[in-house]
Each structure stands twice: as C-alpha cells, then as structure tokens.
Amino acid sequence: MRNKPTADTLIFNIGQITTARGATPRRGKEMNTLYQITNAAIAIQKGRIMAIGPEPLVRAETQGAEQEINAGGKAVVPGFVDPHTHLIWAGERRDEFEMRLRGATYLEIMAAGGGIMNTVQATRAATLNELVSQSHRRLDKMLAYGTTTAEAKSGYGLSLAAEMKMLDAIHLLDESHPVDLVPTFLGAHAVPTEYAGEPDAYVDLIVNEMIPAVAEMRYRVEAASTENERDPVSYLPAAEFCDVFCERGAFTLEQSHRILHAAQQAGLKLKVHADEFAPPLGATTLAVTMNAISVDHIVSTTPAQIKLLANSPTIGVSLPGTPFGLGEMRFTPARQLIDGGGALALATDLNPGTCWSESMQFMMALACRAMHLTPAEALTAATLNAAFAIGRGKWVGSIEIGKAADLLIIDSDDYRDLAYHFGTNLVKTVFKHGKIVLPSAENRT
Ligand code: NIG
Ligand code: FE
Questions:
Q1: Tens digit of each residue's pLDDT (9 = 90 or more) over 163-175
Q2: How far is the CA of 116 from the centre of ligand 1 (A)?
Q3: CATH match for 6-78+397-443 among 3.40.720.10, 2.40.10.330, 2.40.40.20, 2.30.40.10
Q4: Which of 110, 185, 189, 297 gets mutated to test ligand 1 (max ligand atoms within 8 A of its CB)?
Q5: Which atom of ligand 1 is nearest to the CA of 319?
Q6: Which atom of ligand 1 is nearest to the CA of 297?
Q7: 5 pLDDT band (50/70/90 cuts)?
Q8: Which of 245, 328, 378, 407 is 20 to 30 Å from the Cα of 73, by its Cα?
Q9: Given the CA of residue 156, which atom of ligand 1 is nearest to it?
Q10: Is the pLDDT of residue 225 over 60?
C-alpha cells in the first residue's frame, strides 16, 4: 500500500468551497459555472493545495496534518487577483475630487496640467523608501480585503530614473509583503511637462531608451524568498508587461502602436488602457490585433470592437470602480462581451485620480449591479480570469490540486454574499502560499 502523504495544514469544517476551475480563461457561459463542495476540507502541503473534497475523504487521503484550522462552517473562495493597479504613488488628489464634484471633467483637469501630472510631481519628489512605505499601507489594505496577487504599474515617473524607481518599489514590496506583485511598465501614462507640445519626442524616449532599459533590467533574488528549491539564485524581470494609456489627451493610436510594437520586440507582453473615455480611438482593435494579454477599461468600446474582442484570446478587464469613482454612469458592456463568448476579468484600477479603492469585493458588487454579472461570473472575473490576465492562471486564481494555497475564509456560509453584501469587508482569514497572513498572529483569537 502506498504511504499516505502528510499535510502541513488541514482546513476543515468548511461549509462551502466555491471556485472557478480550468487551465484556460473561462469564456462566455463557462464564467457562470463554478465548482462547489459542501462540508469540505482542504489539505495543504508546502504552500500548495494537496487535496480538496468532502471532509471525510480529505481526511482519509491525508495522514493527518501538523496544523488543523477550523473554518467554522464558513465559505472558502480563492484569494482575489487584482490584475490592474497603480499601487505605487505619492501624494493625493483630494482637491481634484472636489473639482470634479463641482463639474470639472477628468480630461479637463488633465489638460490643465493636473491629474496624472500632479501625482507625477509628488512621485518624482518622493524617495524610494517613502514610495515603498506609502504603497505598503495600500497593499496591507488590499490583503485585508482578500487580494493575494496583484499587478502593479509604473507610470507616475515618466523619466527613465523615476520609472525605474517605481519598478524598484514594486520589486521591494513584492519581496517584503505577502501579496505577490506582477510588474508592468507604463511609461506611456502621460506626456510629461518637459515634453509638452512634443509628444513624439517623448515617444522616442520611451521606444529608444526606456523600453530597452526596462526589458534588460533584472532583480537578483536569493532562493529563500522565491521558494525555489533548485535554483539558489533567480532573476526576476523588472517588468513583464508594457501598457499604454491610449486616449485623447494621452497617447494617440499611432503612438500607442509604436510603443507596443517596440515593447513586443523587446520581449514584453502587452496590456492596453483602451476606451476609458469617449470617443473610442480604436485601441481595443489594436490590442486584439497585437495579441495583447488584456485590454483594460473598455467602456466606450463599440459593439463591433466588443465582438472582435469576444472572439479573440485577449482578456477584457473591466474596472467598474473607475466610472463609479468619477461619478459617471457608463460601464464596460460586459454582458455583450460575455454573451458573445469572451473572457472578462475585474480589477480595481487602484489609483489616486479615478479610483482609490483596494477592494475587489466592491468591484464584484458593482459588476453585478452596474454590468449585470451574476455573482458566479463576478467571482470568476475576480479570481481565475484575473490571474490569466496577468499570466498567473497556472499557479493562482482557483482552488485546484497543485495550485498555490491562496485562500479566503469569509464571514458567510455563501460566496454570493461577496457581491450581495457590500460596503463592508467579508474576509475573515487570508491564506497566502498555505500560511495564515491575516489576521496577523498578534490579532488572532
Ligand atoms: O486607469 N487612465 C489612466 N490611468 C488611471 C488614472 C490615473 C490617474 O488619474 O492618476 C486609470 O484610470
Ligand atoms: Fe489604470
């Protein structure tokens, strides 16, 4: 008889495990199909899921565990993946929030030199340590609200040195914080003031200097922090993706194409900020034709472009907190995308201008009401599809054997409450790589 494996941790008395599943992004109707097990348990070994199923079965399969955790009959879902954040910034934009409440638009404020440039000034002036400590607090909040993996963009530096400082901050936070971060280079977030009136010269700088430098840069990581048992040292890329803000007042379609093409040649994968505002410039089509991993915002996108996207491997990332944050009522035509057979993910867009929210739960609540997703579709979009939107779908985003044990015990016996009950935090316990990271040891009762 085979020896039964021993688990490090057994989570038992789980009222309901709910998860999307699959080796590819969930598309169309698949987004509404979840796997559910009641009266369940999960066994974890070396940070990964070793067994899942009805509790007696999991107990029979494992040789007991070093540690047993009673979920108290509550529901367990995968840790959230937030595939679009501007986590790193200094300063704040409260005055602009008030200006908008009095009627100024986001694009007007940006054209007058405020908006992104406001944050660029503060971010350039901040030291690396200041950036890390300010962003660390936001990352703590993301974790508290259940996010266990997130993408983070540069884009408030807009010079080679300041963009590198932001990428350094992402890397330092990834190393020091339980939330895993996936870095994106967004040098094309705005045209900096020193290039005012000559945007193409700034595009030259991005293409000729920034992209080559970013694509070459690697961070050296010692094995202890990578959990890589074979390689004592590994090298992480400074950025995995290149993103462009293609919008009136930011970068044109032609400029975006130049930047994305250079990034692709340099080995970066592509993401696009497309159709956040009207009129749509064609960036969704550009993203699809360039085989971008995701196209994000997609609010003013035309029905023909949504159809094109739905029939492509590119994942549509909706950021419903952004129109909400701007006090606007126009959202991604998500139903069209899903009903057309496409793959949709949700993200916060966490940033100081349009959406200061760390909560994927709030994005699910908004997605159901403003875009008519079902709670099941919203969970798929906030977990497995979100993981695929940042190239992590093989490792995180669902509760499947072999995947990272990134799990949430929620304060409810039904996962649907994550969307139904809003404006509050339903996350009770967060597991990252099989370890309880929240509540922290000193706050556990
Ligand atoms: O995704 N649109 C571009 N970037 C952000 C806003 C950044 C900012 O205003 O600081 C967004 O909405
Ligand atoms: Fe964004």
A1: 999 999 999 999 9
A2: 7
A3: 2.30.40.10
A4: 189
A5: 1
A6: 1
A7: confident
A8: 378
A9: 10
A10: no
- Annotation: CATH topology of 80-388: TIM Barrel (3.20.20)
The dihedrals phi and psi of 226, each to the nearest 5 degrees, come to -100, -10
Residue 111 token pair: 């054209």
What pLDDT score was predicted for residue 222? 85
CA–centroid distance, 55 to ligand 1, in Å, is 45
Which residue has the least CA distance to atom 9 on ligand 1? Answer: 353
Pair of tokens at residue 283? 């960036």
Q: Which residues pair with 182 in a beta bridge?
A: 151
Q: What is the pLDDT of residue 1?
A: 46
**Ligand nearest to the Cα of 356, by number:** 1
The residue extents of the domains of the chain are: 6-78+397-443, 80-388
Q: Show the ligand 1 pocket: residues with CB < 6 angstroms.
A: 86, 115-116, 119, 245, 273, 276, 322, 349, 351-354
- Residue 410 pLDDT exceeds 70: yes
Residue with tokens 């890390």: 132
- Report the C-alpha gap between 186 and 86 in whole angstroms: 10
Q: Which residues contact 261 (CB under 8 A, 6 or more apart)?
A: 290
Q: pLDDT tens digits for 322-331?
A: 999 999 999 9
Ligand nearest 158 Cα, by number? 1
Distance in Å, CA 276 to ligand 1 centroid: 9
Instruction: Write out the E strands in 241-298.
Output: 241-246, 269-274, 294-297
Provide the pLDDT for residue 230: 64
User: Of 141-150, 223-232, 303-312, 430-439, which gets the smallest average pLDDT?
Assistant: 223-232
Q: Do the domains at 6-78+397-443 and 80-388 have one common CATH topology?
A: no
Task: Give 348 Cα–ligand 2 centroid separation in angstroms.
Answer: 9
The yes-or-no verdict on residue 227 having pLDDT over 70 is no
Region 225-246: mean pLDDT is: 83
With 0-12 / 13-18 / 19 or more C-beta atoms within 10 angstroms meaning exposed / middle / buried, residue 328 is middle
What band does 290 get if pLDDT is binned at 50, 70 and 90?
very high
